[in-house]
Design brief:
It catalyses: 1-hexadecanoyl-2-(9Z-octadecenoyl)-sn-glycero-3-phosphate + H2O = 2-(9Z-octadecenoyl)-sn-glycero-3-phosphate + hexadecanoate + H(+). By secondary structure, the chain is an alpha/beta fold. The protein has two domains: 305 residues, Rossmann fold; 115 residues, PLAT/LH2 domain (Lipoxygenase-1), CATH 2.60.60.20. The chain is built from nine helices and 19 strands. The strands form three sheets. The protein has a ten-stranded mixed beta sheet with strand order 2-1-4-3-5-6-7-8-10-9, sandwiched between helices. Strands 14-11-16-17-19 form a five-stranded antiparallel beta sheet, with no helix packed on it. Strands 13-12-15-18 form a four-stranded antiparallel beta sheet, with no helix packed on it. Helix 3 links the parallel strand 3 and strand 4. Helix 5 packs across helix 6. The chain is elongated and about 80 Å long. It starts with a helix and ends in a 6-residue tail after the last strand. The N terminus is likely disordered.
Length: 449
């Protein structure tokens, strides 16, 4: 009896081990590989709703070996970028999130052998070989009935340029390319044929998060999102003393911002504007050109604005985020009219309360100017959304510690949620500098002014 139990346990363990061996894993290298360099090896790991955590290593020559690869379903390729230390990206769970969102073939393109090197220029040169490999594979998919229009390529850093090269090989017939902080070094100032550009797919959407270092500066797609202006991201280190995170945090943040849109954690509207400064000043909140749909939503669902965006000129679209997930902020237009005799300059902090929840917005990108009987327009970006505002608090500060404290006499303050668009007002409020004043908002009565 004991022997039988032992044999049963051994068989179950062996079966489990064999099953585990069938799971393809992303290549895990180490710093030693970075010093000696690695030769290119492209591995394609397939995930579907039937195997969303156990990747199937695909053949580059015979797709009949993989009956779970359904060519009638859309296919999304996820392509990573430069890997200086050889470790797998921390965001590999993106395939699971994509499958939770949509029934598809999710293919993780593992070119860690080739991306792992201390010589960045060597990795750049390898991107062309990776794109040729993927091009041959997609042609094989076509031979088995796949449609180019149903292919979506999500490229991170160098992976975005690889996706663009693949798209160019198919004369822009691929359905969509998403570039997440597209690599800048060695590609800035390059002509379109040497990098990602709008002609590489039927629709190209791009997110910029590190334009002052590792990312690409200028627009590359049919729509280009610049999170927090496209450079320094909230929550990322500001000094080199933070170690490796200082160099990669802004660049890597692009993936996490995008993931929040895949699983619908966040709903972030982005606004076309000539500069980030004008956006923060509330000068670019008009979305009339997009009709009832409003300005585009950043991320996975921006494809819904495809037809309209294809007719527009290339522009920059701006939005801001929180430091951590959920990254989305809630935008209000704030109109302030004062009745002080002399002008005032300063900053405003506003809090919204619903009884249990608090949302905060500090308008401090520049000092606002307030003049008697003149409406000052501002953009307030709250760290969360308060569905039913019961209380509002406002604090005014000049930022000047050596001057006497000022007062700001509000004739009216009006807050308009940019999605709900039902303004709330308060009349005749006296703000003492650095003192928070709380009140209950009222429906606005426009006939008063």
């Amino acid at each position: 009896m004991f022997l039988w139990r032992y044999l049963t346990l051994l068989l179950l363990t062996t079966a489990h081990t064999c099953k585990a061996k069938k799971c393809g894993r992303f290549t895990d290298l180490h710093l030693g590989h970075s010093f000696i360099g690695t030769s290119l090896k492209v591995r394609l790991l397939l995930y579907t709703r039937h195997n969303d955590v156990c990747g199937v290593l695909l053949s580059h020559t015979n797709l009949t070996q993989h009956p779970q690869f359904n060519m009638s379903k859309p296919t999304t390729f996820v392509v990573h970028g430069y890997r200086p230390t050889g470790s797998p990206p921390v965001w590999l769970y993106i395939t699971k999130m994509l499958l939770d969102r949509e029934d598809m073939n999710a293919i993780l393109v593992d070119w860690n052998h080739g991306a792992t090197t201390l010589d960045y220029l060597r990795a750049v040169k390898t991107t062309r070989k990776v794109s040729d490999n993927l091009t041959a594979f997609i042609k094989m998919m076509q031979d088995h009935g796949a449609s180019l229009s149903s292919i979506h390529m999500i490229g991170v850093s160098l992976g975005a340029h690889i996706s663009g090269m693949v798209g160019a090989n198919f004369n822009g017939s691929i359905g969509r390319i998403t570039g997440l902080d597209v690599a800048g070094p060695s590609f800035n100032n390059k002509p379109p044929e040497d990098r990602l550009d709008p002609t590489d797919a039927q629709f190209v959407d791009v997110l910029h998060t590190d334009t002052d270092a590792l990312g690409f500066r200028e627009p590359l797609g049919h729509i280009d999102f610049y999170a927090n202006g496209g450079a320094d991201q909230p929550g990322c280190p500001k000094t080199i003393f933070s170690g490796g995170s200082y160099f990669k945090c802004d660049h890597q943040k692009s993936v996490f911002l995008f993931l929040d849109t895949v699983n619908r954690t966040c709903f972030t509207r982005a606004y076309p504007c000539s500069s980030y400064e004008d956006f923060l000043a509330g000068k670019c909140l008009n979305c009339d050109r997009f009709g009832d749909a409003g300005c585009p939503i950043f991320g996975y669902d921006v494809i819904q604005w495809k037809d309209k965006l294809l007719k527009l000129n290339q522009e920059k679209y701006f939005f801001t985020t929180n430091a951590d997930s959920p990254y989305c902020k809630t935008n209000y237009k704030v109109d302030v009219m004062i009745w002080n005799k002399s002008e005032r300059w300063g900053y405003i902090t506003i809090k919204l309360f619903d009884g249990n929840k608090e949302a905060v917005a500090t308008i401090d990108h520049e000092a606002s100017e307030f003049r008697k009987f003149t409406e000052t327009k501002m953009l307030a970006q709250f760290d969360s959304d308060v569905q039913s505002v019961k209380k509002v608090s406002i604090m005014f500060t000049t930022g000047q510690v050596l001057q006497p404290k000022r007062t700001l006499r509000l004739l009216r303050v009006r807050l308009t949620h940019l999605e709900v668009k039902k303004p709330l007002c308060r009349y005749d409020v006296l703000l003492q500098e650095n003192t928070e004043v709380t009140f209950s908002p009222l429906p606005c009565e426009e006939s008063h002014f």
